[in-house]
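Batch manifest line 252
LIGAND: adenosine-5'-diphosphate
JOB: complex structure
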Amino acid sequence: MSSSPLIDISSVAKTYGSGTLALSNVSTRIEQGSFVSLVGPSGCGKSTLLRMIAGLIDPSAGAIDWPQTQTRPKDIGFVFQDATLMPWARVLDNVYLPLKLAGLSLKKAEPRIMDALARVGLADFAKAFPRELSGGMKMRVSIARALVTEPPVLLMDEPFAALDEFTREKLDDDLLALWSSQKWTVIFVTHSVYESVYLSERILVMGARPGRILQDIAIDAPYPRGRAFRESPDFIRRCAQVSAALGEGMKA
Ligand code: ADP
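JOB STATUS: finished
ARTIFACT:
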């Protein structure tokens, strides 16, 4: 590992006002340009950790530092399970929102919006309304909206969980293609062991009560990863390893 990670998470704990200890003593380093997944049972604090990295909530103890930039980057992309599009606004206006909030005119923003839409394969749908799109297309719009500010870090909280298997696999492939061309750092929360192994360079397996990191598993299979990887004995073996780590966590 390099001496200066992008994100340095040290001894982080989070207790909510209700008294729930959501996370306890979480320490890890996220390298610039890496693809890291968080997997673990519901309630183990995956979203809490993501929200703290985004600066939406503060840790109760410990620190999240950004050694390379000193401060948290202003533009962090966040993609949720629900596409959360404005139903009354066209695709173009939905993707425009973060730039509009940053004070950019639509005229100035339009090339960037069209570029973000092209990157997710929706260049022809700029004038469409969300109701005209499939679930997978809505999620692509949500990704385009996160990409339009060209964030160095993309935080994804179970983004494809509500989609059918086929669409999900397609979006996984598209996400990997974007990641390898854009070189962002991605932190991806998923319930799916298969999805985490397929996508990630590293998987942080978390356990609940209190939420903590149980294992840090490297997935050192080469990219690009395609169907051959999904169907290989190596893939199955790695999935079994992550499942076993999760199982240990459930017992603990
Ligand atoms: P995960 O994403 O792994 O399902 P969360 O981070 O959403 O887990 O939640 C971790 C724990 O913290 C759970 O017990 C949850 O009920 C609790 N929690 C999450 N958000 C809040 C909140 N805003 N107020 C109080 N408790 C919360």
